[in-house]
Amino acid sequence: MSTEELKLPLIDLSGYINPKAPGDRERVIAEVKDACAKFGFFQTKGHGISMDLQKGLLKSIDTLFDMPKEEKRKLSFLQNVSRRGYEESGMSLRDGDKLPDSKEAYYIGREDPIVEHAGFYGPNVWPNLPEDQFRNPVWDYYNATHKLGEIIWEILLQGLGHPISLMEEFAKKPMVMMKMIRYPPLSKTLPGQFGVGAHTDFGGVTVLLQEPGKDGLQVWLEEKEAWVPVSATEDVYVINCGDMIMRWSGGQYKSAKHRVINKADNESRLSCATFFHGDVFASNPLNPDDPNRETVGQLLIKRFGNQFSLAPEWRAAVGAPA
Ligand SMILES: O=C(O)CCC(=O)C(=O)O
Ligand SMILES: [Fe+2]
């Protein structure tokens, strides 16, 4: 089968968000369960995020990355304990990759007044741009996708037969990171260089907006051993499950490998991923009887520990090795 014949399912979430008839919610829960079991990914409409928010966000991303290089470098995420701020093109190199990612990115997260837990919580770094051109549209968008991420978690846990009430603990003070991305045109990348090399997402639910018409995302379908291209359609979101979900669901939901190649010779590509991980002290809501009480924080440390400046007390507090 050629990859062109394979497609991710498109799920209308409005039946869950605004149910009109009995059974609407159950139908959506079953569709999401099926898609995440098969692909670990699906596309969605009826998600409740307005076009105004989406357009405002994409415009803000462009404004940000159009700033002079020196200005962007002053906002480097490497200088920030919470890893908020700017990541230059060429900074991400995964084990096994020959070349680093061509993308540039900018990270924001929960806006907590003080740095806590060695940086999982803390304030954001905002660029020196008029608030209505960046901070306001970006923050409004962050909150909307934060909500959508929570809704997807709710659906996922119900798909495994658990009550929504489990979300209270899980979403108390959730780690929600947002990554705004710009991929350079193909003509500006090295031969064989990816926008983002093949990877799985680390954690919980990813809510991904792609710039309409700018295809480039490909998802690995294990069963067919094929890369499935994902179209970038206006007002259609891509949702996927990270490694934490795969682990906590006992493999019932997949965390699929994916990568990005911007094939446009002369045009950049924008995207934005919101990662809803959950409260750092919360444990598995996909199996409340899981005897392994590992928390979101412990898993985050395992994966990103060497990237955050983790104080020994914090490692100890969550039972992670020093
Ligand atoms: O830009 C995209 O379409 C995907 C980005 C992605 O996979 C990631 O940031 O984890
Ligand atoms: Fe990803």
Radius of gyration: 19 Å
Which molecules other than protein and nucleic acid are bound? 2-oxoglutaric acid, fe (ii) ion
The rounded distance between the terminal residues' Cα atoms is 49 Å
Strand tally = 12
Query: What's the rounded overall pLDDT mean?
Result: 92
Strand order of the largest sheet: 1-2-10-7-12-5-4-3
Helix fraction bin: 25-40%
- Please tally the helical runs, counting DSSP H or I stretches of 4 or more residues: 9
How much of the polypeptide forms β-strand, as a percent range? 15-25%
Structural class: alpha+beta
Reading the helices and strands in chain order gives EHHEHHEEHHEEEEEEHEEHH
Shape: globular
Low-confidence sequence ranges: none
The profile of the biggest β sheet is:
8 strands, mixed
